[in-house]
Amino acid sequence: MDKKHENWTTNIKSLDLFFIEKKPTKAPLFAALPAKIAKFHNLAAQIESMSADLVALENSGTTQQKSNARDALINLLHVIVPNLRSVANGGTDEKLKTLTEISDSEIARKRDTKLRDFANDIYKSAVANATALADYGADDSVVAQLRTLIDSFDTLIGESGDAPKEITTLRNSLYGLFPTTEAALKDIDDAMRGYMTADPDFYNEYILLRPVRALGIRHKHPPQPTKAPQAAPAK
Fold first, then answer.
1. For residues 19 and 41, is the Cβ–Cβ distance under 8 A?
2. CA 103 distance to own-chain centroid
3. Residue 227 in domain
4. Domain range holding 110?
5. pLDDT tens digits, 78-126
6. 211-225 pLDDT, tens digit each
7. How many CA atoms lie within 13 A of 166 on its CB side?
8. pTM, whole model, 2 decimals?
9. Considering its fold, how many domains does the chain have in total?
């Protein structure tokens, strides 16, 4: 599993444990929350189970080396693609805008051969925009690393082409759950807003576990922790 989805899986588990172990202490649990939390809990359980199954499959036999190469390539794409998207948004290259208008989960869900082809297109764009890309920290050495990772992955794909169907199907199903889970959490975000004043400690603890993840292309600013109301100083 690539690093971004691995981290997101850990974060989802932490949020799930929060709702299992924590309850508001200064206000009742809002009636709108239990059903939303139950939906999130079900998604979290699916992600945990499917993640374990995917790791087991990817680490079996000769599959492990290719899976490691795939994850390393995806991890770097998750850095370079957003950088190139920012370059495109500041210019007039419509082809680059179209190429980079893709979410992290969509990249991770690509079949091996499609991922290789996409990575090659990104590499060509990175070379063509090397000067602008360097302003984001992706200098020539980073672009060269991308070339190396693509070539290593391509070699491991070899004549076998895409990963076994069982792995591809499971990977796509798992990564497809992340946008759905993010939508469920955004729904919980809205329902939790009342605790900003009703129980600031409960709300702040939730918010600290709830960073915005770059799984999509466009993001709203995350809700901010709130300060407990302060008593007016005595005169």
1. yes
2. 9
3. no
4. 3-17+33-208
5. 999 999 999 999 999 999 999 999 999 999 999 999 999 999 999 999 9
6. 755 444 333 444 555
7. 8
8. 0.73
9. 1
